[in-house]
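Obj: model holo form, ligand = 6-O-phosphono-alpha-D-glucopyranose.
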Amino acid sequence: MCGIVGAVAERNVVQILLEGLKRLEYRGYDSAGVALVDTNNHNKLSVVRRTGKVIALANAINETNGLGTIGIAHTRWATHGGVTEANAHPHSSEERFAVVHNGIIENHKSLRDMLTQKGFTFTSDTDTETIAHSVALHMQSTDDLLSAVQAAVKSFKGAYGAVVMDQTTPEKLVVARSGSPLVIGLGIGENFLASDQMALLPVTRRFIFLEEGDVAEITRTSVKIIDGNGDIVERDVVDSTVEHDAGDKGGYRHYMLKEIHEQPLVLRNALNGRVSSEGIAPGIFGEGADEIFKQTSYVKIIACGTSYHAGVTAKYWLEQYANVQCDVEIASEFRYRRSYVPANSLLITISQSGETADTLAALKLAKEIGYMSSLSICNVDGSSLVRESALSFLTRAGAEIGVASTKAFTTQLAALLMLVLSIGKHKNMDPTVSANIVKALVSLPAKLEETLALAGEIENLAEEFSDKQHSLFLGRGDQYPIAMEGALKLKEISYIHAEAYASGELKHGPLALIDADMPVIVVAPNNELLEKLKSNVEEVRARGGIMYVFADKEAHFESDDTMRVVQVPHCMESVAPIVYTIPLQLLSYYVALIKGTDVDQPRNLAKSVTVE
Ligand code: G6P
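Output (holo structure tokens):
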């Protein structure tokens, strides 16, 4: 989703801004722009914007010869106003103030009316332009940019992470955060800011994460932060622990393929020091976690997208193995409904980014309505969700660049199995079951390596999907959410319509759709539901459906005219959802490759959805 980069330095910042934007490309965007106080053009405010990729913007800036020691830049993912150059950020006012903004100013219509009445002329359809003119309005009664921004934000309703630059004071940037993340990057004699630390890793690894309500003034040598109460505050400086370099595809054609193949490695990292043949290590969910788990009698999991599918899988596991009641809900639903909170409820949020607006809002609500405690399972240390939850657990997947989530999902599942063991300890979990889960987890990285060897076979099979418009994914029990995730992956990157059903629901509707043009993908490990699943397969066969079955050898499926069987390495039941995810990821990747879509940045989608 939208990305922000800003810099104030002694050197030319154009390349820093462009490199920052490139590093944010993975988040998804449709246009990009840069504003500079242009030393090659009499220190005038120079704004260059382009629809399409950052490379088009870089070419345009090359042509203008733009140069400056202070600048702001943005990748836009359209919310208000179409994808046009005029709607791209930065937006400016009076050829003096430039603004980049993530989030949505919800009262932009009334602000636009008020500002128009006061003589400001709008040149875009965006909500963001109201920020530029509001700052200009408040600068009529002060000569201090920080005070003008503080006054302006008081009139905004909604979410914003915004950066303001004033051409007449080209030594400072002013930023404001409410609802959309912003991080300040500290250099030596230069400072930076961004919506995501990834953007700044080539120039610094020292960061200050702004908090809700903060407004800050940043110069080359100073950072002044004022909190929501108007007090000057010091915020911690954090050394980044992000290890992976976003710029490296490691020889793979796409980040997504690289990330699929990284899964054995990142799973090893995720398990390291937490589970071994000795069992689950104590205290891995943080200080006080055991006390909280002991008291927990109900778990509510909240997430969006792929992370939601991890949550649905965990519901099966927590109830089946750890004897604790669990419900799962999509964050955007939970946050806007009145829900019942049983006593001793633990709220668990799952998120790759830790910045998903709906998930953050759900956490905030849960605190208000009486949840006993909160735990975040997240891939990004220092993210808003991690900072705002009582307990946090990092999935250690490393930076995930492909918009379609892969390794983040399987590490979330591993984290959730570790949670099952940690909560189960306090809930009379059967020791044989927990010993089996430990064993399954320890051997999981090797099992994933074995499963990745199916890539060639799945690449061949993908040919058969290239002319299909629709598809159906079937699974039962804890494989139902895996079927959901498989369908999501296929639709996200190949644009083939895909639906997932719990196989038992087949005859309650989707059976009507079955014909030779509707491939049916079945996940069939060898578990107690296998015979039921086989009956569902026969129902599809009887209606002329063509099936692609991912099955355990012991499940005894045979390929024939109507069924292609891919044998998945035999694995223990508890980790089967993780193992069966791999072939479905590979299938969607190879189908997308044949269809020639933009695998890493699928159309209309964003990696981190920071607006609701
Ligand atoms: C977006 C991404 C998905 C992701 C979802 C939730 O839709 O494209 O891949 O699953 O957001 O994101 P989170 O960072 O909270 O896991």
